[in-house]
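If your schedule permits, I should be very grateful for your opinion on a structural question. What I wish to show you is a protein chain and, alongside it, a tokenised description of its three-dimensional fold. Would you kindly read the sequence against the tokens and tell me how you understand this chain to fold? Here, with my thanks, is the record as I have it:

===
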Amino acid sequence: MEKIKSFFTGVKAEFGKIIWPTKDDVTKQTTAVVVVSIICCVLIAVLDYAFGFGMNKLTSIF
């Protein structure tokens, strides 16, 4: 029983050391993730279209 109590005391102490981000930080980081995700999606879509177009041209030649 003492081990369990000691465990939760340690968890409480560690929980107090957490530095929570501000609302502004969360907003900036979320915006950055969304923008980078959109850029990656667009890049993948363009590459997919270009490779598909190229493969269609190559296969239509032969």
DSSP finds two helices and no strands in the chain.
